Amino acid sequence: MGVRADIINSDKKLVESTINKFISIVCATNFGDSPVPKFAFIEDEDLNIQKAERDLKIYSLGGSIFKRIFSQNLWI
């Protein structure tokens, strides 16, 4: 028994919208007019497991993940 793709996509949009409204309120309350991050679902094919494992290894060894690289890979 599967769920229709249009229902899934509609639910995802609703959840994304709600979470983004919440994030906006929290950021406005705590940080004023600073840029607000956006939440979005990603599909499995968008994930890059090799990069994630690499970054985790670097971090666990005490390395620093630069803001630019972090932002680039997480679309922030």
Q: What is this structure's SSE topology?
A:
Layout: H1 5-31, H2 49-60, H3 67-74
Describe, in short, the structure shown.
The protein is mostly helical and 76 residues long.
Describe this structure as you would to a colleague.
The chain is mostly helical and 76 residues long. The protein has helices spanning 5-31, 49-60, 67-74. The N and C termini lie far apart (36 Å).
**Alpha-carbon Rg, integer:** 16 Å
Helices and strands, in order, run as HHH
The largest sheet is:
none
Per the principal axes of the C-alpha atoms, what is the gross shape? flat
The portion of residues forming beta strands comes to: under 5%
Give the strand tally. 0
Percent of residues in helices: 55-70%
Tell me the number of helical segments per DSSP (H or I, 4 or more residues long).
3
Structural category is mainly alpha
Between the first and last Cα atoms, what is the distance in angstroms?
Answer: 36 Å
Low-confidence sequence ranges: none
Query: What's the pLDDT, averaged over the residues?
Result: 81
